[in-house]
Amino acid sequence: MTKPSTANGGYRGAPFKDVVVTAVTATTSVSPDIESTWKGLLAGESGIHVLEDEFVTKWDLPVKIGGHLKDPVDNHMGRLDMRRMSYVQRMAKLLSGHLWESAGSPEVDPDRFTVVVGTGLGGAERIVESYDLMNEGGPRKVSPLAVQMIMPNGAAAVVGLQLGARAG
């Protein structure tokens, strides 16, 4: 794509003048990787279409368009990952692996290495599932991992453990 740069895009007063972006990654409804996504967007492709999923009719959602990932995250996860992680954690694990690889899997001091993943809520689907399980069968039906699947920093924790980061 492009070479790493410390340029701040013309923004005055950029607080991180020495930050270098060494890799980027994405999986989208246009393409499973960032290069193909960018080419597709430049070619005018859209990953948005009419949704025919069961949940759209089940809840009579007013919005019936959206996009599905071309390469679903769960296709890359094992049985244990599916049980122990929320969707946002599984996505963070997969994409951070791609990102780390495209950055050249650099050797870093784990005590100076931290991970930050921006997410508004964390595993929101697990909140609903845990609530339903609690109502149906009591506390024993709720996964003991529910809190870590719901917490907003759960995605960063998964990535940090995967990459050996200890500074955060």
From TrEMBL:
Keyword Glycoprotein: no
Recorded GO MF terms: 3-oxoacyl-[acyl-carrier-protein] synthase activity
GO biological process: fatty acid biosynthetic process
InterPro entries reported in the protein's UniProt record: Beta-ketoacyl_synthase, Ketoacyl_synth_N, Thiolase-like
Keyword annotations from UniProtKB, A to Z: Transferase
Pfam families: ketoacyl-synt
Coiled-coil ranges (or none): none
Cellular component, GO annotation: cytosol
Keyword Transferase: yes
Positions of the Beta-ketoacyl synthase-like N-terminal domain: 17-167
Pathway connected to this protein: Lipid metabolism; mycolic acid biosynthesis
Protein name: Beta-ketoacyl synthase-like N-terminal domain-containing protein
